Recover the amino acids of this structure.
């Protein structure tokens, strides 16, 4: 029974390490921050007067596309 405790500790340590390595690889703090910044920019544009010759509306659409691309990048990284 003495040998089972050290083996359990080693196995538990290996599992914990694998979990944290997986989390670190899956975490996307820069991508998450980019989404937050883009959402803030979108909110500001949405408040602006729509007298910009259609450029404000186009910018809103481009921000929506960009947010979708960043989310797709996060999803891709999570599976590869």
């Amino acid at each position: 029974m003495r040998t089972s405790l050290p083996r359990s500790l080693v196995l538990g340590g290996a599992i914990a390490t694998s979990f944290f390595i997986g989390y670190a690889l899956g975490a996307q703090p820069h991508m998450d921050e980019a989404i937050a910044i883009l959402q803030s920019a979108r909110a500001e544009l949405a408040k602006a007067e729509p007298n910009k010759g259609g450029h404000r509306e186009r910018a809103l659409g481009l921000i929506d596309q960009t947010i979708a691309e960043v989310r797709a990048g996060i999803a891709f990284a999570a599976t590869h």
About this structure: The CA atoms of residues 11 and 24 lie 20 Å apart. The first helix runs from residue 4 to 26. The two ends are 40 Å apart (CA to CA). The helical segments are 4-26, 29-47, 55-79.
